[in-house]
Specification:
It comes from Actinacidiphila glaucinigra. By secondary structure, the chain is an alpha+beta fold. It has four helices and five strands. It is 41% helix and 24% strand.
């Protein structure tokens, strides 16, 4: 059970590490969690059951940036916004689910700061509904990022 029901205190680094820790602990079948800063493309924090070379983690951050803000994705967002009459500069895509052979990867923009993306990696056998529900709850609890 999360102890972060109240607004987290501390500096931004502590808050990001707390978010990652809570994702790892509270999302079912979670093998890794991280936070990417979309304004810089940097991985701010990561917690994983396995050790990974730094270049792999850097690629995760770059891939997350491409998934949400790559040139073609932004073009698709702009077309959707135009067709629906949306004039906001907010990004259209908020969550992306990717399944690989053995893993399920969930990428979620923070609900109040769309420059922050939480990444959760779970076993492929995860209940996707519970994955979304728990990840959304944990991210929402960390609303001060």
């Amino acid at each position: 059970m999360s102890t972060t029901g109240k607004r987290p205190h501390g500096n931004l680094s502590d808050q990001v590490m707390g978010l990652v820790k809570n994702l790892r602990q509270e999302v079912p079948d979670c093998l890794a969690a991280g936070v990417v800063d979309m304004s810089t493309g940097m991985l701010l924090s990561v917690d994983t059951v396995d050790s990974h070379p730094p270049e792999v983690l850097d690629l995760l951050a770059a891939a997350t940036l491409d998934l949400f803000q790559g040139r073609t994705v932004v073009m698709i967002e702009d077309v959707f916004k135009e067709r629906r009459g949306v004039t906001s500069d907010a990004h259209y895509f908020q969550e992306i689910l990717v399944n690989s052979d053995n893993l399920t990867h969930l990428f979620m923009r923070h609900n109040l700061n769309e420059e922050v993306v939480a990444v959760v990696v779970c076993r492929r056998s995860v209940n996707v509904g519970m994955l979304f529900a728990q990840a959304r709850r944990v991210v929402k609890e960390h609303s001060t990022l």
